[in-house]
Amino acid sequence: MLTPVTDGDGAPFWEYAAQGELRVQACADCGEPRFPPRPCCAHCQSFASRWRAVSGRGRIWSYVVPHPPLLPDYAQQAPYNVVVVELEDAPRIRLVGNVVDHAGAALNSLDTQRIRIGARVHVVFADGLPQWVLA
Amino acid sequence: MAVAGLKDATAIVGIGQSAFAKHLPQDEKTLACRAVLAALEDAGIAPGEVDALASYTMEETDEVELAKAVGFGDLTFFSKVGYGGGGSCATVGHLAAAIACGQASVGVAWRSRKRGSGPRPWTNTTVQLPTPAQWTRPFGLLRPADEIAMLTRRYMHEYGATRDHLFNVALACRNRANQNPAAVMYERPLTREMYMTSRWISEPLCLFDNCLETDGALACVIVGRERARDCRHAPVYVHSAAQGLPAQHHGMVNYWNDDPLTGPAWTAARHLWKHADFTPDDVDVAQVYDAFTALVPLSLEGYGFCGRGEGGAFTEGGALEIGGRLPLNTSGGGLSEAYVHGFNLVNEGVKQLRGSSTAQVPGAATCLVTAGEGVPTSALLLRN
Predict the structure, then answer these.
(1) What three-state secondary structure class fits B131?
(2) What are the residue boundaries of the Thiolase C-terminal domain, all occurrences included (chain B) (predicted)?
C-alpha cells in the first residue's frame, strides 16, 4: 500500500493522525481553516497557523469505485470505495478517504451499495491513516 | 489603427501529424521531427525560418534537440506550458502573443507522445509520488480516471446528469472517428448496448468514458497575419486565446475549492469571450478536450453554451452530431481519434476552417478549441 509522502506543510496532519487525532490547519490570526496545508493564509496573508481539532464527523460529498488496472495492493481489494468527506465543523474542508466496516478493515470491507452522497460518517484511525465508518 | 491586442493578429498556416496507433515503432523525438516538418511543408515555410517554439512541460522532445534535428534558425522565443492536457491551446496562444508583439516571426508548437506503448504509472509500485498526492493516493485514488470520476459523481448528483448524457458524448466522438481514416477507432462503431455493458474503470466512469492510449505526434505553424496571406493555405486566424487557473484551484482533485464543479474552463472562458467579436451562439463547430466524457458537459457550461447544470441535457437530441446545435470533436477527439494531450483538437479546428475535415461542417467559419478542463487550462477561438 502507498503511504503518505509528506511535506513540511502537511506533516503535522499525519503526526496527529498517528496519535488518533483529526486536526486541520487554520490561520492563527483570522481563524480561516485551509486545506491542503500551506505556508500562508490566502484570506489575510498571515504566516501564523495552528492545528485545530475537529469533531471527526462529516458527510459523504462524492465517491468512486475503482476497478483494475490498479497498483497491485489496491487491485487485490478492488472494487473498493474512495470517498470525499465534507467535515461537519469545517464544511469547506473535504478529505479523501475510504469508508470501511470498522477501524483497520480492508478498503473493500463495506458493500459499495451502502455508500450514498450525503450519508453521515465519522473518523476512525488505522496505521496512521484516517478512515471513515458509517454513523 | 492601433493593433487591438491578439485579435486576428496571427494565424495558423501549417499543420502536420504522424500516424496514430496503439504502438508506433519510432521514438518520440523522431515522431516530433516528422510532425513538425510536415506542418512546415504544409505552410510552405523552410525550417531555417522558424524562430519560436512552444511545447508542453510533459513533452520529452527538448527544444534544443528538436531545433538541431530539424534545422531551425536562431530562436528568439521558446516556451513550455504546464499541466498536461491543459497546455495544448496555450502553446498556440504563447506563440501568437510572441509574434504579435514582435518577439519572433515564425512559431512552431508540437506534442509527441507514446502513451499507447509507454509505461503506465499505476502498474508500478516504485513510482515516485509527488507530495500533493499524500492527500489522495494512499486511499486508492490513483489515476486521473478516479479523480475525474469523483467530480462526475457529484455532478450527476447535483444536476441529474445521466450515463446516457455521457454516452451521447462518447457516441458523437466515435461517429466522427468512423468518418476519419486516420482515427484509431475508424472502423469501430459504438452502440449504446456496448457502452452500457462495458467494464467499469472507476464507477461512474466506464471503459468508453476514457480517452485512448495513443502513440502519435502533431505540430502547427503560426505566423503574423501579413505573412499568413502568402502561405500555401488560407490562414486560420487566432481570434482569441486564453489560459485559466481559478482562485484556490487544486488541479485534478479540485475537491476543496469552494465550488469544485466550476473549474478552469470558466476562468479561461471569461477572458476568451471578453476579447472576441462573437459569442457562443456564433460558434459553428467545437473541439472540446475529452480525456473523459464528463469533461464535455462541464466545458459546455464553462464556455457558455448552456447554463450551469445544463451540460448533460445539452447533449440530448443529437446536439453534438454533424447537423446538431454544436458539432463536436469532428476528428473523433481524444476519445476516438487519438489521445495526444489534445493537440489533435487544435489541428482539427484548422481543418474545419479550411473546409478539409473528414467530417466537415458546411461553411464552418468559427471554431472553439479547448484544452483540458480539470487542470489549469487554455482555449482558442479560431476563425477563417
Answers:
(1) helix
(2) 258-376
Answer yes or no: are the C-beta atoms of B256 and B139 closer than 8 Å. no
**Is A25 near chain B, with CB under 8 Å?**
no
Note the pLDDT of residue A101.
97
Instruction: Count the Cβ atoms, other than its own, within 10 Å of residue A44.
Output: 12
Mean pLDDT computed over every residue of chain B: 95
Give residues with Cβ within 8 angstroms of B156, minimum separation 6: B162, B204, B312
Q: How confident is the model at residue B128 (pLDDT cuts 50, 70, 90)?
A: very low
**What would the pLDDT profile of A67-93 be if each residue is shown by its tens digit?**
999 988 999 999 999 999 999 998 789
The set of cell numbers assigned to B15 is: 499543420
Give domain limits for chain B: 10-116+212-383
Place of cell 499505476: B122
Looking at CATH, the fold of the domain delimited by B10-116+212-383 is given as Peroxisomal Thiolase; Chain A, domain 1 (3.40.47)
Active-site residue (options: B83, B155, B195, B289): B289
Cell digits for B285? 463547430
pLDDT per residue as tens digits for the range B192-240: 999 999 999 999 999 999 999 999 999 999 999 999 999 999 999 999 9
Q: Do the beta carbons of residue A108 and residue A53 sit within 8 Å?
A: no
What was the ipTM of the complex prediction? 0.97
DSSP secondary structure letter of residue B360: P
- The answer, for B249 touching chain A at a CB cutoff of 8 Å, is no
Reply yes or no on whether B339 is catalytic: yes
Cα separation, B354 vs B94, whole angstroms: 23
Q: Which helix (H) or strand (E) holds B152?
A: helix B144-159
> Which B positions 256-285 lie with beta carbon below 8 A of chain A?
256, 258
Q: What are the residues whose beta carbons fall under 8 Å from the beta carbon of A104, sequence distance 6 or more?
A: A126, A127, A131
Asked: is A54-135 a CATH 3.40.50.300 domain? The reply is no
Does A96 contact B139 at a Cβ distance shorter than 8 Å? yes
- Global pTM reads 0.96
Cβ–Cβ under 8 Å, residues B262 and B145: no
Q: Which phi and psi angles does B268 have, rounded to 5°?
A: -60, -40
**Distance (Å, whole) CA B106 – CA B99:** 7
Backbone φ and ψ for B86, nearest 5 degrees, come out as -70, -10
Question: How far apart (Å, rounded) are the C-alpha atoms in residues B176 and B186?
Answer: 8
